[in-house]
Amino acid sequence: MTEAVPRLGIGMVGYAFMGVAHSQAWRNAPRFFDLPLRPDMAAVAGRDEAAVSAAATKLGWSSTETDWKALVSRDDIDLVDICTPGDTHAEIAIAALEAGKHVLCEKPLANSVEEAEAMVRAAEASSGLAMVGFTYRRVPAIQLARQLVADGRIGTVRHVRAQYLQDWIADPQAPLSWRLDKQKAGSGALGDIGAHIVDLAQFVTGESVTGVSAVLETFVKERPVASEHSGLHGTAGTETGPVTVDDAAIFLGRMSGGGLATFEATRFAWGRKNAIRLEINGSLGSLAFDFEDMNVLHYFDATESAAVAGFRRIVVTEPEHAYVAAWWPPGHGLGYEHAFTHQAVDLITAVAEHRQPLPSFADGLVVQRVLAAVEESAANDSTWTPVTKES
Ligand code: SOE
């Protein structure tokens, strides 16, 4: 008889867009991957009793709490999954870590460097393990890109060209949401999507951003207040309110290996829905990725004869590629939600093996310091601003 797989009690705080994506991941992880622990979707927390109950039923959670503190103190919860706006990340994560729970926290790690530092300290002091949700690291094509760089296939990194382009607030009538409120989100396009490309640039190259020169802009300063919200979208009401974050963030950076980088994060790029574009030019070749064609990685090998060299379009759906063997036959492709499942799988495995899951809170802090340097530079006429290593 096979032995039962031990249980890992999961408690999730928040159940909007990210909560839905995480729920799907906890549900699917044991259905597609052989896991050392069985995630048990024990409880979801939200302030509105009726709404959180409806979400629990729809998403597959066994019980609900209307106070996250009650969820964190439950004995049947081993891991707290934080899917709330940034202004609550530090408080929930620190309380959970102090209670000895493992933590998965959505990105960006916090709304400030100080909060992120406190979270790192709490993680270091806890018996719980902590991970930040830079989910796109778990796209198989991104894993391949990192591998190719690590294997020296593009040589020394000269340029990183990173863009995250969306258009969901390009319409000035798109209503306000917490993502446009500095108090709740910390920053706008910068923290929401710029954080992802900073993390990806560092993850794929294995290097860090050492300094930046930045501009931030808020194009639409006043928007309708939403009368209703669902996912990223809402219904505009009659009142208006201020947008208190950046709509777009553009910055230059230097990489620790001597290369140069450009970053562009905007939610005003009509027609671009979730275009995460990463092009890396090295001394021996180039890589190019676009999330809107996420199962593909383009690779140019400059060591080949010029007569036959050209960008190779690698379809990253072979069982040899990271995570793919657990899913579908070659060519059948993965989507947005699969990276969340991979994140759950890697976290469960790290917990079972008692080792630090990556990206750690310390990795989240590194990104937070880049975001802070971008804000400082933009506030000082784009002055060159080093990314601090420690406060
Ligand atoms: C909105 O811009 C958003 O939902 C981000 O918050 C997520 O991190 C990104 O994965 C998709 O877009």
TrEMBL record:
Residues 143-287 form the GFO/IDH/MocA-like oxidoreductase domain. SUPFAM superfamilies: Glyceraldehyde-3-phosphate dehydrogenase-like, C-terminal domain, NAD(P)-binding Rossmann-fold domains. The keyword Isomerase does not apply. One of its GO terms (molecular function) is nucleotide binding. It comes from the Bacteria. Gene3D superfamilies: Dihydrodipicolinate Reductase, domain 2, NAD(P)-binding Rossmann-like Domain. The keyword Repeat does not apply. Pfam families: GFO_IDH_MocA, GFO_IDH_MocA_C3. Residues 9-134 form the Gfo/Idh/MocA-like oxidoreductase N-terminal domain. Keywords: NAD, Oxidoreductase. This is Oxidoreductase.
